[in-house]
Amino acid sequence: MASPFRRTAALLLAAWAVTGSGAAAAVPVAPHRSVRAGQPLEAECSARVDGSRAVADCFNANATPDRVQLHVQCARWWDPGMDTATVTVEPARHVSLAQRCWLEIRQAWVSHLPG
Description:
The protein is mainly beta and about 120 residues long. The protein has one helix and seven strands. The chain has one helix at about 5-20, and strands at about 45-50, 55-60, 65-75, 80-85, 85-90, 95-100, 105-115. The chain is elongated and about 60 Å long.
C-alpha cells in the first residue's frame, strides 16, 4: 500500500498531466466580504429553528479564532430564554451549537466575540 505522501504526489502529477503543460487550473475563490478597518473577522454562522429546538452551525474561514454563542428567545412568557456556553471556533474549524425551549422558539441568533 502506498504512503499518503506518495498517493498525494501521484494525484498532483496526474492533475498536472491532465491540465496540459502545467497551466494553472481554475480554482474557485471564496466570496469576498467587505471588512472595515479595525472590524474583527467573524465565523460564518447559520441558525435554524425546528419546532422547539434551535441549531447553529459555524465555520471560521479566518486566520483568527472567534468565540460564538447561540441565544434562544422562547415564545411563551413562562419559558425562560436560554443561551449556550461560549465556544471558540479556531481557524478552519466548524462547531455546532444547540439549545431548546419547552414549546415554540420566537427567535434564535448567534453572537460573536473576538477570540
